[in-house]
Design goal:
Blueprint: H1 2-29, H2 34-49, E1 53-60, E2 63-70, H3 82-86, H4 95-98, E3 108-114, E4 117-125, H5 130-183, E5 194-201, E6 209-215, E7 220-228, H6 232-252, H7 256-271, E8 277-285, E9 290-296, E10 302-305, E11 310-312, E12 316-317, E13 332-335, E14 339-345, H8 347-350, H9 361-370, H10 377-392, E15 401-409
Parallel strand pairs: 9-12
Antiparallel strand pairs: 1-2, 1-4, 3-4, 5-15, 6-7, 7-8, 8-9, 9-13, 10-11, 10-14, 14-15
Helix pairs in contact: 1-2, 1-5, 2-5, 5-6, 6-7
Length: 410
């Protein structure tokens, strides 16, 4: 008689296990979200095992996350290395194993591995009698298998999601790169009295650097440089809109005060105050022998005179787009006497670091410029790039480097 009862009980257990596995498998095949899989798992164990306590700790990027629990007394939202130490032998743990651990309120702990990688630990307890304890013990291998199926499925979901995110990100970077390349001028002037050379070294992500030049007429030229906060497609699109607005404005007026106020309004409206643009613009008037400029929060360009002086151009205003209205604006002016060279750059140059965590800094730029006071734009840029390459050594750039050297004389 007892034999018949035991056979019947084992049959009933197997039927419960098969039904649970079938339900879980169907849920996975239907691609249900992670939360739904956890809910089904929770219901399956609680309904079939009459547990008083249940907790599932899941490892996610070297951190433990409490995914489900009920009936527990302690706070397990922050779990340290003790969880690893518990299951280092990859065995199912019982009260004698848990008694001196932070998990001593439980009666069973089941580690779940996949290809030697620890995915989760299931803790159970709170059973009322010997019969129910035996029920859990008879189900241990099944619980381990069921948890493994759930965790591997969720891990696969994460991997698929991360792969999709990486593909989307790569596509966005490619789009942003193309947009950024379209912003740079297709050709640079190289005349007797006005010449430009420029260079762009991209970081591994696409930033929002931009440089440009425009010929207003035979004797008036515009040079500018900008850097938008943020990376990727949003930064590239904001800078694209900025360039279009700038060129439209300059077709109507060369009044830099009006240009700056209008650009600030355009950037603020486009970015909702969440992004900003550092910007420098200079109007070079060879007939009037005057350089007029505005520095809107950008790294101060260097103005080199053939007589051996170097001046920083720092007059202007705040970054564009941070505030609805610019609180102050100072127009900078300087006379053009003989030959001058204007070096524009983004902060990727001065904020480059070497392997000793030393910053390149504006002082090193000044030293290089002092040695190349009368040099052509191409030679100035070549010297800067050679020095920065030697300085950083094997360390990768932390930001884009954009350079523009403009030389002119009257």
């Amino acid at each position: 008689m007892n034999t018949a009862i035991n056979i019947a009980n084992r049959y009933e257990l197997k039927e419960l296990e098969l039904n649970a596995l079938l339900e879980i498998t169907q849920a996975i095949n239907e691609n249900l979200p992670e939360d739904s899989l956890y809910k089904i798992y929770n219901f399956t164990l609680r309904a079939n095992l009459k547990l008083g306590k249940l907790m599932l700790l899941v490892q996610d990027k070297e951190k433990w996350e409490l995914k489900l629990s009920f009936g527990i007394q302690k706070d397990y939202t922050k779990v340290d290395e003790s969880a690893y130490q518990l299951v280092e032998k990859k065995k199912i743990l019982f009260p004698s194993d848990l008694i001196d651990s932070p998990f001593d309120e439980f009666e069973v702990a089941i580690p779940v591995f996949h290809k030697n990688e620890l995915l989760a630990i299931v803790f159970m307890g709170g059973v009322n009698n010997t019969e129910e304890k035996e029920l859990i013990e008879n189900h241990l291998n099944f619980i381990q298998a069921l948890t493994n199926i759930i965790m591997v499925a969720i891990e696969n979901k994460k991997m698929a999601r991360e792969k999709l995110e990486q593909e989307v990100y790569a596509k966005e970077m490619e789009i942003a790169k193309k947009v950024q390349q379209l912003l740079f001028p297709k050709s640079l002037p190289e005349n007797d009295n006005f010449s430009i050379d420029a260079h762009y070294s991209p970081h591994h992500t696409v930033g929002g650097d931009y440089y440009d030049w425009l010929s207003i007429d035979d004797h008036r030229k515009i040079v500018c440089i900008a850097d938008v906060s943020g990376k990727g497609v949003p930064a590239a699109l904001l800078m694209s809109n900025f360039q279009a607005s700038l060129r439209t404005l300059l077709r109507k007026t060369t009044d830099l005060e009006e240009v700056i106020h209008d650009l600030n309004h355009q950037v603020f409206e486009s970015a909702d105050g969440e992004n900003f643009i550092t910007f420098f613009i200079a109007l070079i008037d060879l007939k009037e022998r005057k350089l007029t400029y505005v520095n809107a929060g950008h790294n101060p360009p260097f103005l080199l005179s053939s007589e051996g002086t170097i001046e920083k151009l720092d007059k202007g205003t705040l970054v564009l787009g941070a505030l609805r209205e610019i609180p102050f604006l100072e127009i900078g002016t300087t006379n053009i006497d003989k030959t001058q060279t204007l070096l524009l750059y983004t902060d990727g140059l001065t904020e480059a670091f070497n392997e000793k965590e030393e910053e390149f800094g504006p002082e090193r730029v000044m030293d290089i410029l002092n040695k190349n006071i009368a040099a052509k734009p191409s030679l100035i840029l070549k010297s800067l790039l050679s020095e920065i390459d030697t300085f950083i050594g094997k360390r990768a750039l932390s930001d884009d480097i954009t350079l523009l050297a403009c030389q002119y004389h009257v």
